[in-house]
Write a structure and sequence with these properties.
By secondary structure, the chain is of the alpha+beta class. It is built from 17 helices and 20 strands. Strands 5, 6, 7, 8, 9, 10, 11, 12, 13, 14, 15, 16, 17 and 18 form a 14-stranded antiparallel sheet that branches. A 4-stranded antiparallel sheet has the order 1-2-3-4, with no helix packed on it. Strands 19-20 form a two-stranded antiparallel sheet. Strand 3 and strand 4 form a beta hairpin. Helix 13 packs parallel to helix 15. It starts with a helix and ends with a helix.
């Protein structure tokens, strides 16, 4: 291979003439390159002028292209697709609206009488994190959204009335009319068309309404603000419903809705339709824990629209606090079938619990609020009143426990007389006979506690949803609607941060300590406490669980449970001091001499016990055989 390559190179080497020609060609190429470089330097002087003319031609072409695209997209509305987004302030005594000429919409809402947990202005939503627009088809079948068009402000002569006009031609336009009252969180909104049948499809009698926003975190405690942030809606002439608050949720509703509410823990944005929303699509999305927003809400619905302008499309908006009395006032003097029921967005529990809240707790709270400004004192007085109201039940429950305790020696005799599982029926029957003879009901201690449960659950739902407690201080607690941290730490501790939080609430800690003390007192008075060590341990575990459950709850609720348990401990000692257990036992033994009247239930129970005992005896005989 090597010899072949050498031989091929020798036979094909260039002649002297070819070498001379190559040198001449190289010299010529170098001369051409030098001339080319000189020409480039000369051309640089005219490059800026040439580029200017080129860019001008490109810009003109782009403008023509944009104009064509705008015409293709918006049709007769293309002239309204560009402009300057001007913002104007529009306000009453309660809130301030920032209006945007692009879309003719409310860009943001600031509530004047409230601030955030960080003492910043409380803004419900902003333009960049919200949507507000109506879509429709033009006469040439183009789908247009008012959010993409620029409106013109029209003077109304009224500082509480604001008009935005979408003027397609000199004779065809659409007005968005906003009207406020001086001292009201509601504002009216109307859409008025004039000769819109010339630029919209003639058979168009609805507008598709799209409203969306991200609800900002306003409170110190994100956990409960997230839990109480929910999208509510009301069917026309029917009940109020809601989407799932714990996870992302959406719902397609064909029924007509009267209103849709976007709410956080204490504030709401509500759209109310005069003739209802149809073809509804509602959605709620939970924002990440690191986001400054709690939830993202969106609704897409349809509202009627008179294309010829003889009737206006009417709506109302509510931007304000979730206060039960305020929301309830909008139904004053209105027939039941036409009431808005806006107060139902206040989470006061189910039917029975809500009845306890609206019938007992709220009236008492409002009554004390008329004379006392300190809400910690109001909670203290409410606790005293509630404990007095349920004292007869508490006394009856304690008396039932005392009767069971003094009968314990006789019950032990029955247990010794009928030992073992095979004689359980006889033992149970003998125990029930003893109770019946002395006039004691085993359920006597449970039923009074059961009757108290609606009040307890009512208070549980009342405190976290009561805006009156928001940012109200008492003792060391700066906000009775949130936790009262005395120790805080940073960083994420697995499980602890998620379920307990990065703090310790003092009222919650005091509530836990008093519950442990009460459990100890209560277990000593129970007749079977020494027989159920497992249950005894479980009873002591419950107060510790309360510490984890309520550490992030409203401090007002922990304060209530703390005071309530403290009063219960005092009542227990007072009742115990007034009861002579020897006299009580003598009275019970005296009752044995009286004839026993059997109720129908007692007779049936006794018959069932006899049959069970008979069956057990037969089973034992069969085993022996």
């Amino acid at each position: 291979m090597f010899l072949i390559i050498i031989g091929f190179s020798y036979l094909n080497k260039p002649s002297q003439a070819q070498l001379d020609a190559a040198k001449e060609q190289k010299r010529l190429n170098d001369s051409i390159a030098l001339a080319s470089n000189l020409q480039k330097k000369t051309d640089l002087k005219s490059d800026s002028t040439a580029n200017f003319h080129t860019e001008s031609r490109d810009s003109t072409a782009a403008l023509k292209s944009d104009s064509i695209d705008s015409k293709m997209k918006f049709g007769a509305f293309s002239s309204l697709a560009s402009g300057e987004n001007a913002h104007t302030t529009f306000e009453n005594n309660l809130f301030e609206l920032t209006m945007s000429s692009k879309g003719g919409r409310i860009a943001s809402v600031r509530l004047k009488k409230f601030v955030t947990g960080d003492s910043l202005p409380l803004i419900l939503f902003k333009e960049e994190t919200s949507k507000f627009g109506f879509t429709f088809f033009t006469s040439d079948s183009r789908l247009v959204n008012t959010e993409d068009l620029y409106f013109k402000e029209i003077p109304s002569g009224n500082p509480l009335k604001f008009i935005y006009r979408l003027a397609v031609t000199d004779s065809s336009w659409m007005d968005f009319i906003y009207t406020l009252k001086k001292d009201d969180y509601k504002l009216s909104f109307e859409i008025k068309g004039k000769n819109m049948d010339r630029v919209m499809q003639s058979n168009n009698n609805i507008l598709d309404f799209n409203w969306a926003m991200k609800m900002r975190q306003q409170e110190k405690g994100r956990t409960f603000e997230e839990r109480y942030s929910v999208l509510n809606y009301k069917y026309v002439g029917d009940e109020v419903d809601k989407l799932n608050a714990a996870k992302d949720d959406n719902e397609k509703i064909t029924n007509t809705l009267k209103w849709v509410s976007f709410k956080d823990q204490f504030f709401a944005c509500i759209a109310i339709a005069d003739k209802g929303f149809t073809s509804n699509n509602l959605s709620s999305n939970v924002e990440s824990k690191t986001s400054p927003y709690i939830k993202g809400y969106e609704m897409t619905s349809s509202v009627p629209f008179d294309i010829r302008g003889s009737q206006n499309t009417k709506m109302e908006f509510y931007f304000g606090p979730i206060k039960h009395a305020l929301l309830k006032s909008y139904d004053k003097g209105i027939a039941r079938d036409n009431q808005l029921d806006l107060d139902k967005i206040v989470p006061l529990g189910g039917k029975i619990i809500r009845w306890a809240n609206t019938g007992i707790i709220l009236p008492m709270f409002d009554l004390f609020g008329k004379f006392i400004s300190n809400y910690g004192v109001i909670i203290l007085l409410m606790t005293l009143v509630i404990k007095l109201l349920i004292f007869p039940l508490t006394y009856k429950s304690y008396m039932s426990s005392a009767k069971m305790r003094v009968l314990q020696p006789q019950i032990q005799e029955i247990n010794d007389k009928f030992p073992g599982t095979e004689r359980a029926a006889e033992r149970s029957q003998a125990t029930m006979n003893l109770y019946r003879q002395v006039g004691v009901s085993p359920m006597g201690g449970c039923l009074p506690m059961l009757f108290q449960m609606p009040i307890l659950f009512a208070m549980y739902s009342f405190f976290p949803s009561s805006i009156e407690l928001r940012q109200q201080s008492f003792l060391w607690a700066h906000d009775l609607s949130s936790y009262d941290a005395i120790i805080t730490w940073s960083g994420n501790i697995p499980l602890v941060t998620k379920y307990f939080g990065n703090h310790i609430s003092l009222f919650c800690l005091l509530m836990t300590i008093t519950n442990i003390i009460y459990t100890n007192i209560n277990m000593k008075t129970q007749p079977t406490s020494n027989q159920m060590p497992g249950m005894k341990t479980m009873m002591y575990m419950m107060p510790v669980m309360f510490l984890f459950m309520f550490n992030q709850y409203a401090s007002g609720l922990s304060f209530y449970f703390f005071i309530s348990t403290l009063i219960t401990i005092i009542q227990t000692y007072v009742i115990r001091a007034t009861i002579n257990e020897d006299k009580l036992l003598a009275q019970l033994n005296e009752n044995k001499k009286k004839p026993v009247k059997k109720s129908g239930f007692a007779a049936r129970l006794e018959q069932a016990q006899r049959e069970q005992q008979k069956m057990l005896k037969e089973q034992q005989k069969n085993k022996r055989r």
